[in-house]
Specification:
- It is a single chain.
- The termini are close together.
- The chain folds into 2 domains: 2-95 and 281-310, Medium-chain alcohol dehydrogenases, catalytic domain (Quinone Oxidoreductase, Chain A, domain 1), CATH 3.90.180; 110-253, 3-Layer(aba) Sandwich (Rossmann fold), CATH 3.40.50.
- Strands 3, 4, 5, 6, 7, 14 and 15 form a 7-stranded mixed sheet that branches. A 6-stranded parallel sheet has the order 10-9-8-11-12-13, sandwiched between helices.
- It has 11 helices and 15 strands.
- By secondary structure, the chain is α/β, with parallel strands linked by helices.
Length: 313
Amino acid sequence: MKAIIVNDFLKPEIMECMDAPEPIPSSNEDLINVTSIGVNFGDIERLVNNNFGSHGFPLIPGAGYLENGERVVAFLTSGGYAQKVCARKDNIFKIPKDFSDETALTIFAQGITAWIAINKIGDLKSGKTVLIHAAAGGVGSIAVQIAKSLGAFVIAAVSTQEKAELVKNLGADLVVDPHDSNLRGLLQQTNLGIGPDLVLEMVGGKRFDTSLEVLAPLGKLVTYGMVSRNLPSQIQPTELINGSKTISGLCLDDYFQIHGYIQSIYDELCEFVIAKKIKPIFNKYLPLSQASRAHQELLGRKNIGKILLDPTF
C-alpha cells in the first residue's frame, strides 16, 4: 500500500509518498480501507514537533470502510495518511447513510473541536459575544454556525474578501480583518464596550495577545493551535485576576481518551447537519502524494474549509 512515512521531525515540503507494509490490527483494533483522509492542523503540529499530542516514529500522519463493508470515520494519533489503517475500536464511528466522506470528515475533527470549544469549555449562551479567529477555516467555519445556532453575536476574523463573504453567508454578525491596525479598538467596542465573552484562537503571537487584552470580564479564551509559529507574550497572573478571565487549552487527543465522550458530540453534530443547522465547508481533494502541498496551504492560511487527501493516487 501507499503511505506518507516520516522517520523524523521535518518541514512539510519534504514529505514523500512511499510503499509501506499493510498494518495488522491488534485485538482492540479494526482494519479500515481508507477512501478519504482529513488534513488537520494537529498533523502539522506533530510533524514540526510542537508537542501537541504524543506519538512515535515512523509517523504516518481517515474515512473509509471496514472489512464488512460498513462505512466509518476514525480518529488516529498517527498512521492516517495511508491506504489502509488500524484504529482502536472505540475511536471508530459509523457514518450516517446519506453523508458523503467529505461531510463526515469535515464535521469529525474540526466539528468536534469547535463543539468542545464553544459548548463544553466556552459554555456559550444566547446573547453572548464570541470572536472566532481563522473563521473561514475548517474549525472556524463550523464554529460560526454553531455559535449562531445558539443565538450568540459572532465576530469572524478573516484575512481576505472571499473569506469574508463566506463567513457572512454562514451568519457572522461582524467581520474583521485580523491585520487591521485598529483591530484592538474595534474588538473593544463590541458587546456594549466590554469586548467578546469567548474567543477561539489558534494563531498565537500578537493575535493571542490582542484577544486576551480585549476579552470581557469573566470571559474565556480557548487556544487550540499556534499556526503563526510565534509565541504570545508572557502572561502575568494579574492579567487573569483583573477581570476574572480564563485561558483554556484544547487538544482533541485528550478528549478521545475519555470513554464515550466523543460519541455523544459526534451524534449531536450529525443531527445538526441533518437539521441543516451546520453546512460543512469542503475545500478540495488532493492526491495522497501531495500531502506536503496540503500542509503548506494550511500553514499559509490559503484554505477555505476542509482539505482532504485521496489515497487512491
